[in-house]
């Protein structure tokens, strides 16, 4: 994998480091503001409650001072005001976290991507074209980080996804069909049809009855590589176009993916002008320390950039399969 070739140049990395340091200064400043806003807000609430309570004591029965019905109502209002003060005190830190990370931090880290678009928690635009035959049927999907743009001149979408579905009817259990990173990118040359390399065991899970017809209608094509045949099946609706790829570049790319991503089976599909890669992964690929924890460029950011470059170089490699 040519990760070093894809890494941003020294000037870009220096600019990213500078942005991280500026983000840290803003985060620390916002955190310090909580230190005075919280006692100030809570102190004002307590003072107001005490003053009003003493005023109510003038009208309360001597046996009910501090405990009359109006006092109890006041204390409830005071509790609500204390919660509001707590929220108010932490607002600068939350704004620094939300705005800084999603609107400043990630766009800065991934600045070497052209036409960068970063979102979180929403489905990528390309998911409507995602071929379900890669993993089997699913009825639940959730997304975390979604990064889109252009790399080495080709458009792509990269997303963290969890796909879930029920086991066969009657079991009552649910499970993950896939969890990891998805890549959708423009093929170097459109494939005239559909070609998928998927795990052989995958068709035993999920709604088999719902997908069996559509998947079995595809022709199976042999790669001639025994170790791959044991764990993968290759299916297509265009044997003539798929045959040269299966016995050549696609198999070589798939073997490289297996060696590079050993935790789970990478899956690949070609469909018209799109190429799809799924890489199983348990952890959050673009995880950062919590909002109250410091971010270190060398420890947290540089490895993240290298991992993103590795994913995009993976896309570039698979893309050459169709070229």
Describe this structure in words.
This protein is α+β, with helices and mostly antiparallel strands and 323 residues long. The protein folds into 2 domains: 3-109, no CATH class; 114-322, no CATH class. The chain is 47% helix and 25% strand. It has helices at 3-6, 10-57, 69-109, 208-216, 226-231, 239-246, 249-260, 297-319, and strands at 114-120, 140-151, 154-166, 174-199, 219-221, 232-236, 267-280. Strands 1, 2, 3, 4, 5, 6 and 7 form a 7-stranded antiparallel beta sheet that branches. Strand 2 (140-151) and strand 3 form a beta hairpin. Helix 2 (10-57) packs antiparallel against helix 3 (69-109). The longest helix has 48 residues, at 10-57. The protein starts with a helix and ends with a helix. Mean pLDDT is 82; it is low at 168-173 and 202-213.
What is the compact description of this entry?
The chain is of the alpha+beta class.
Q: What count of structural domains?
A: 2
DSSP helix fraction = 40-55%
Question: Assembly type of the shown chains?
Answer: single chain
Q: β content, as a range?
A: 15-25%
SS elements, strand count:
7
For this entry, give a set of tags:
323 residues; 2 domains; 7-stranded antiparallel β-sheet; 8 helices
Fold blueprint:
Blueprint: H1 3-6, H2 10-57, H3 69-109, E1 114-120, E2 140-151, E3 154-166, E4 174-199, H4 208-216, E5 219-221, H5 226-231, E6 232-236, H6 239-246, H7 249-260, E7 267-280, H8 297-319
